[in-house]
Amino acid sequence: MRGLYDPRSSMASSPLVRKLVPIAALACGTWIGLVGPDAAEAEIREAAAPITSPPPESAPTPTVDPSKLPDPSPFPRMNPAANVGRAWLLAEGPAYDPNDKKRYVTLTFDDGPIPETTPVILKTLARYDVHATFFFIGRYLDGNDARAIATRNVAQNILAAGHMIGNHTHDHLLLTTANHTDALAQIEEGAASIERATGHRPEFFRPPYGQLDPFTEDVLQKRHDEVVLWNVEAADMVNDDPEKMADSLERQIASAGGGVVLLHDVKWSTVETLPKLLAWLKARAYDPARPNRVGYVIVDLPGYLKATAARPQPYADRAQVEAARKERAQKNHSPGES
Known about the structure:
Distance between the termini: 78 Å
CATH class of the largest domain: Alpha Beta
Mean pLDDT: 84
Strand content: 5-15%
């Protein structure tokens, strides 16, 4: 070991050095020269070795219950081609089953996060024990000014609370009007900003205005991103009446039999609408003791996709789903049962 006294060297073997080493060792407060050459070398090796603790002799052999292991695939990949038409179909959720009255709802929030309103949304979701998905604008997370730092803290709080995070591009640019270079940059830079801020690569992607073209579909396919759209929306970017917004959402959910709800966590009208919607859903929650009564289950996005994969729609596109729904409603005179 370089820099240490080596008892095997020729100088160390001289009588004078062997007499002086103990004195030097005492003066330096160390013991290295007070022991024989073999013992000193052994002590050095022992000090450098990692410390390990032997397992208890009577420790039982651990057993693993496979049913309690985490799901190796967080959500099913039902749209590997990132096709926008199929994404609209998947947003409709599980296929209608007259014998199953359970309806699935998942909440999604676009265009944030921002320090003013997103934390209030988080508190409301926590009060109702609901996990949602937030689709971030990447540029809000960039920079070292006070607002960017506060926004990154909000993003980290979203993740810490157990919510999902998705990419909504870097600047909310309509991708179908951009050239290929700009469209690619919007997708890639948005994801990079999110990963820098949270430490996690977003796997969900929501295109601004719900629009993609063949080029952006190909980009998202190669990135293995899951395109997520919606079938229920509050129009909260143009509507500022919480009562009307809540009523509209309730009617849409009842008509569609659940769905992916689009909201925006950057609007105060959404802050005021959300508790009204959650209270309505809670009052109509699915009750296993009343299996013949329609009820809602609020799930996170992976849970919604898993339910959809378990009972996929038998239709080719969203238009066919809506046509079948209208036909059932006319036959049953009960839109809320579809």
